[in-house]
């Protein structure tokens, strides 16, 4: 017989709101970590940070179909609910919200969030419907859980800026916090999609982070931004990646930058190695 868990699992919005209302009545604060499951050490860092910012932490586990294009990997996206609940409980999470598609998108659902600003370019040049799906499900989760704070990983840096902008623009009563990327010892950013990497591709994957690190160091040392970025692009391609983009952008607005004086700089990259698409980003030291 399985050992009972201390973490509570709910599947409906009504159950979620009922529990949050009880916590609120007791004067407690709430943090939310939205995820699509397949939890790894990066998610654990998010959940542990959530516990540091509120008395109660919630993790949502929902593979959101609206952020996948028809050609993407929705059907084979890893689903590991029992292991996910074990990790969430170990991180001190009080409640897991695990809705199904019908709960999140009931019959007749017809509303999406329209985006501009940091949602334009980069990912949307290659996945044009992606952030509309992300923003819509995040807006729903924030309305459902009514957290004081919601935490997102900096690995998905453009997503973090999109959600931050959305919450600000829509006056949502929640603080959005970014948590630093957790990496393997060789620099590869942790991702649920890393399980798709073949041994050969896994060996080559850290080249993405090495290229970003070299470019960030060069730019911080006074090198030309455009030249440093171009060198990094060549390094990524030489390592066996098919490059979607590698860009230097303003860290908050994600507008293109040409000089250090344009503001704090973030380098962002997306590239495919084998059948796996990886993303990463790195701040240029100030």
Write the layout of secondary structure elements.
Layout: E1 8-10, H1 13-25, E2 30-35, H2 41-53, E3 56-61, H3 81-90, E4 95-97, H4 101-104, H5 123-126, H6 130-145, E5 149-153, H7 157-169, E6 175-179, H8 199-204, H9 207-220, H10 225-238, E7 242-250, E8 265-273, E9 276-283
Parallel strand pairs: 1-4, 2-3, 2-5, 3-4, 5-6
Antiparallel strand pairs: 7-8, 8-9
Helix pairs in contact: 6-7, 9-10
Concise account of the structure shown:
With 286 residues, the chain is an alpha/beta fold. The protein has helices at residues 13-25, 41-53, 81-90, 101-104, 123-126, 130-145, 157-169, 199-204, 207-220, 225-238, and strands at residues 8-10, 30-35, 56-61, 95-97, 149-153, 175-179, 242-250, 265-273, 276-283.
Structural account:
It is a single chain. With 286 residues, the protein is of the alpha/beta class. It folds into two domains: 8-179, Rossmann fold (3-Layer(aba) Sandwich), CATH 3.40.50.620; 192-283, 2-Layer Sandwich (Pantoate--beta-alanine Ligase, Chain: A,domain 2). Helices cover 37% and strands 19% of the residues. The chain is built from ten helices and nine strands. A six-stranded parallel sheet has the order 1-4-3-2-5-6, with helices on both faces. Strands 7-8-9 form a three-stranded antiparallel sheet, covered by helices on one side. α6 (130-145) crosses α7 (157-169) and α9 (207-220) packs antiparallel against α10 (225-238). The longest helix is centred in the middle third of the chain and has 16 residues, at 130-145. The protein is globular. The N and C termini lie far apart (55 Å).
């Amino acid at each position: 017989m399985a050992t009972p868990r201390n973490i509570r699992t709910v599947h409906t919005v009504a159950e979620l709101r009922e529990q949050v209302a009880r916590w609120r009545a007791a004067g407690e604060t709430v943090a939310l970590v939205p995820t699509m499951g397949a939890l790894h050490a990066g998610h654990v860092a998010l959940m542990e940070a959530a516990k540091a910012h509120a008395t109660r932490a919630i993790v949502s586990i929902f593979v959101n179909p609206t952020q996948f294009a028809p050609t993407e990997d929705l059907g084979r996206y890893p689903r590991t609910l029992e292991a996910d609940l074990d990790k969430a409980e170990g991180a001190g999470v009080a409640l897991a919200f695990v809705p199904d598609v019908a709960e999140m998108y009931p019959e007749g659902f017809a509303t999406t969030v329209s985006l501009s600003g940091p949602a334009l370019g980069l990912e949307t040049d290659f996945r044009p419907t992606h952030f509309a799906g992300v923003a819509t499900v995040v807006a729903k989760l924030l309305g459902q859980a009514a957290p004081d704070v919601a935490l997102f990983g900096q690995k998905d840096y453009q997503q973090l800026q999109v959600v931050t902008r959305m919450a600000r623009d829509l006056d949502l009563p929640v603080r959005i916090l970014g948590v630093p990327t957790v990496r393997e010892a060789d620099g590869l950013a942790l991702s649920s999609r890393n399980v798709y990497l073949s041994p050969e591709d896994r060996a080559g994957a850290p080249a993405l982070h090495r290229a970003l690190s070299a470019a960030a160091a060069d730019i911080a040392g006074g090198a030309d931004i455009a030249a440093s970025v171009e060198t990094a692009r060549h390094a990524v391609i030489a390592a066996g990646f098919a490059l979607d983009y590698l860009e230097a952008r303003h860290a908050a607005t994600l507008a293109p930058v040409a000089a250090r004086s344009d503001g704090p700089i973030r380098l962002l990259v997306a590239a495919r190695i084998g059948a796996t698409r990886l993303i990463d980003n790195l701040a240029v030291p100030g």
